[in-house]
Here is the input.
Amino acid sequence: MSDPLELGPVIGALALVWAAAWIDFRTFRIPNALVLLGAGFGLLVQTWGSGLDGLLLSVAGLALGLMLMLPFYLFRLTGAGDVKLMGAVGAILGPAALLQALFFSLIAGGALGVVYAVAAQVIQGANGPLERYGAMAKFLWVTGRLSYIPPSPDEAMAKRLPLAVAIAIGTTTSLLWAG
Here is the structure.
């Protein structure tokens, strides 16, 4: 996208990420139809606005979004819907604006994770994640080796986090930052 604040792509990107955030928050899923619609919109609007150059930038943004999020999926840190959503954001915004949106999305995701962990500790008391993280840190300090203690099934951290909310916050922040 030559001008990251052209109105059509901005409105399309914001509509996509906030719709996905709402659905993911309620269901912990991002529908394929939504991300396909977003990617198609990105390809169409960029081709319409900039011709072949716009199409190539849109495809590059789509591929970059998928490629950068794929390792998070492979390490089971995110779901496939989050990967596809970031690809659709890349198709709408192009690769340069995608990198900024991804940067802010990762910051938002980390912040939401910390808030989630602290809230879980307050709600669950001694069985919360901070005690588990403390035990892992103590093991590292004493032995010099890394360890991982998985969360118990009833711990809040064993539950999924709706990452589309972080993607929506990050994308919105990046678009505001650019403007």
About this structure: The mean pLDDT is 89. The first helix runs from residue 7 to 27.
